[in-house]
Amino acid sequence: MVELQVNIKGEGGKAYEGLLRDVMMDLGVSGFMEAVRLALDPYKALFAMSVRLKRTSRPIRLAEVADVELSGEGIDVKISDEKFSPDVVKALEEIYGESVKHVSRFEISVKGVFDKSSVENLVICDYAEKMEKLVLELMMKVAPEGFRSVKVSKRGDEVLLVASEDPLTEELLEKAEELLKG
Question: 124: which residues sit within 8 A by CB, 6+ positions away?
């Protein structure tokens, strides 16, 4: 379970928390986050969000996210975890090039390749990098649309996003840190 802290000045705290939960569920990110802190002060046009990630860095192999079967023409891959779909396609195309054909959204065939084991053991991405990208996507979707000045930083296992309508000064960044502390 993700520890969730939402601090909104004025009205709308519950609605924003609902939005945050919905986007987290849509992206499937809650399983690799320990804590999320979100703060918004609409009167100062300041938004801050901090996500503490679970420690995990390991290569993801194709067999973890797809079923691989031999067919008469080569290998058939059925992607079972759609968030890794672009990574699967990219990894297969980098190695097998023109032999890779999309049968459907989650089905790929690799013609003329019959080494099932090498395809199953193919590293498609680094899990930590993938999760960090999804967390950034979450943050950008939750941040107010008009807040065009954005700064993202990483400290250890924590990713921090600060956004504002105004240029981000050291003073605003300090205020964002204070907002997150509650």
Answer: 60, 61, 62, 65, 84, 87, 88, 90, 91
Length of the chain: 182
Asked if residues 84 and 65 have their Cβ atoms less than 8 Å apart, the reply is yes
Say if residue 52 is in the same domain as residue 73.
Answer: no
According to DSSP, the residues that pair with 51 across neighbouring strands are: 36, 159
CA R_g for the chain:
20
The string of pLDDT tens digits covering residues 115-151 is: 999 999 999 988 778 788 889 999 999 999 889 899 9
pTM for the predicted model, two decimal places: 0.70
Q: Which range marks the domain in which residue 101 is found?
A: 59-126
Same domain, 67 and 114: yes
Q: Number of structural domains, the chain?
A: 2
Residue with tokens 């979450």: 138
Q: In what order do the strands lie in the sheet with 33-41?
A: 3-8, 33-41, 46-53, 158-164, 149-155
CA distance 147 to 125: 32
d(CA 147, CA 166) in angstroms, rounded, equals: 8
Same domain (yes/no): 67, 152: no
